[in-house]
Amino acid sequence: MSRRDFPAFRYLFPSFLFVCLFSLYPISESFRLSFYRLILMLPWLGQRFVGWENYHDLLTDSVALSSLVTTLTFVAVTAPVEVILGLCMALVLNASFRGRGWLRAIVLIPWAIPTVVSSQMWRFIFNDRYGLVNFFLFGDRTDLYIAPLADPSLAPVTIMIADIWKTSSFAALIILAGLQTIPGELYEAASVDGAGSWQRFRHITLPLIKPALLLALLFRTIDALRVFDLVFVMTQGGPADATNVLQFYGYKKSFGEGMIGYGSAIAVMVFVISLLLSLLYIRLIGTRVLQKVDQG
Amino acid sequence: MPVSVVKHPPRRRKDQRVKQYQKTASLSLRLLAAWLFIFFPPLSLAAENQLHFVTWRPDPPWIWDRAVADFEARNPGVKIVREVGPQSSSAFHDLVTQKLKNRDPRMDVFFMDVIWPAEFASAGWALPLDRFFPPAEREQFLIAPISANTYEKEIYGVPVFVDAGMLYYRKDLLSKYGFAPPGTWPELVRQAKIILAKENDPHLVGYSGQFKQYEGLVCNMMEFVLSNGGSLWNEQELKASLHSSKAKDAVRFVRDHIIGDISQRGVLAYQEPDSLALFTQGRALFHRNWPYAWEAAGDARRSKVAGRVGIAALPVFPGGSKVATLGGWQLGISRFSRKPELAWKFISFMTDREMQKRIALVTGRAPARKALYQDTEILKKNPQFKSQFDTFVQAVPRPRTPVYVPLSNIMQRYFSSAIAIPDSNIDQLARRAARDMDRVLDLLRGREAS
């Protein structure tokens, strides 16, 4: 450490300590435990080092693999949709009109409601007897009412809708911040040159908010990979395991079944997938796009 | 600013740097102290005459308020601190096991579902109660919950009330078409089809039970499987048996006739409250639930069918024997409690005759003490307890094992996949479930080997 770095280190130290305590320690502990066989209710088995056995089991566990597919499908659908919706919302919120401040606050409400509460709300909305969805679709033709939460092909869709409703506004917030950094002169100059509104959007707005879009996509991807509370409240992984996402499966293994080693292996797998995706995104944001912005 | 230039000359001496390090260290130490202060309240708080009771919210909630107040009045200076956990059994399990795993001394007395004592005993989390709860005292209770609370000859919990699966039916509709309560499952389906066709009411379904992928699904499906002469697993041989043809036939019957024929797909997302609401709204002909539903279905303020409800033992398959899944809740003491004597005092108060009677009268839950099935006041309020006494005595516990939760998760997955998909491949699903269960059951063999 050079002398010049010293004050920087001093200022960073508290947050470094915080990260150590709440991120590095739990992550390394999960790594360690994932190499052991530790089953809480069978204490006579002890805590035995088993090497890669948990990971080997994980790769041959058909339930884990199908929950990996469920999770990745969830991510692949929700993250892009949320960013696109968020972009639309941000464009509206960035325009100047009366009551904009209020609208900006209102748009954030879904994101501010605790997920447990909104999941309960969506459970009611999708109810097969008195749910709003059925009412809007079929009115008083109650014999046609469907039960989305009871249908293995529809249940994952209900979870996705609940997630999109809840977190699109978070994406909007990030994109809005990106929009606000674009200087107005660019648009003026483009208008003078005769660019239409689509051309201005396509050639000015979109390239300049690309980092913000990618950042929103990154946050939503990582968050969607860790989806848990929606499933916990709405479906408990059912019906027929159709909504059994990885984090919920890992939770059941660690906390319900007491299989600490195997549960840790699942947690590590989620961590590694998130890490790889983050690195990919950061590469995209950090080099190519940011350079473009600098040049622009 | 010139001042700061004077204070921080570009070339620093070594002792100044050491000072900076010290400052940083002292700052982080202070942060650590603050963190400890916030997250670890002094343990002396727990050392007072307080008893921590982890429970769920009963219906009606005031029954615990009164019980706790009475106990505190009888034991001056003692304070019961209640921690209210989630209503769902699985979520409550995760909360309690989390505290036990952390050896939390701030949980003395806790509720246990009837399927947990073996697990808690095996993990060394529940205190054996033999010195407090001698065999002579245990004889006052129904045998089924006592054996569910016993693990390797020691007892770990005192039953507060018992549950057993019951069949509720619409008395008015059955008598309108001249039917007696069905004795067999095919008869139940036949009656439901005729009544549904003749009533021609789009709101009415034939059967409502608990078929969501959760613990209740195992209770419901076990009743079908066992009443067809099947079983879930062999407890002696530690081998899964839900892939036997009798067990699979019962599952197939549920898929094709209960879900696919007389019920509606919505029940695949139902737990107890949703399925009960369907029945009390007058929208279900038959309903499977625990005894407490009698109180709810008969209360005119909460039920549209009050006075038109009948109750019977669950049907069987032709040639099968009657099966009701045993449920119910017990009180146990944490091994990490520092006040087991006081904890026992509270448990014996909560499970004495007077309190069980009060709980039975107010909540409609079936008492665990045998003598109360002769009590005139209880029988007046719950006349069905007399005729259902045999059901409670014969109720079948879910197999007792420390690895119940992993086995149950496998069964929930299997049953839900088998009945939620109309053309499910039950043979293949059952084989896979049996293979997964055998792997879990194999863990128990390790004990004999070591």
Description of the molecule:
The complex is a heterodimer of chains A (296) and B (450). Chain A is mostly helical. Chain A contains 14 helices and two strands. Chain A has one domain: MetI-like fold (Orthogonal Bundle). Chain A has helices spanning 6-33, 53-60, 62-94, 100-107, 109-112, 115-125, 132-138, 155-180, 184-192, 197-208, 210-225, 229-234, 246-256, 260-295; strands at 36-37, 48-49. A two-stranded antiparallel ribbon of chain A has the order 1-2. Chain A starts with 5 loop residues before the first helix and ends with a helix. With 450 residues, chain B is α+β, with helices and mostly antiparallel strands. Chain B folds into two domains: 44-162 and 326-394, D-Maltodextrin-Binding Protein, domain 2; 166-323 and 403-449, D-Maltodextrin-Binding Protein, domain 2 (3-Layer(aba) Sandwich). Chain B has 20 helices and 14 strands. In chain B, the strands form four sheets. In chain B, strands 2-1-3-13-6-14 form a six-stranded mixed beta sheet. Chain B has a four-stranded mixed beta sheet with strand order 8-11-7-12, with helices on both faces. In chain B, a hairpin with a 2-residue loop joins β4 (150-151) and β5 (154-155). In chain B, α10 (185-199) runs parallel beside α12. Chain B starts with a helix and ends with a helix. The interface between A and B is large, with 43 and 52 residues.
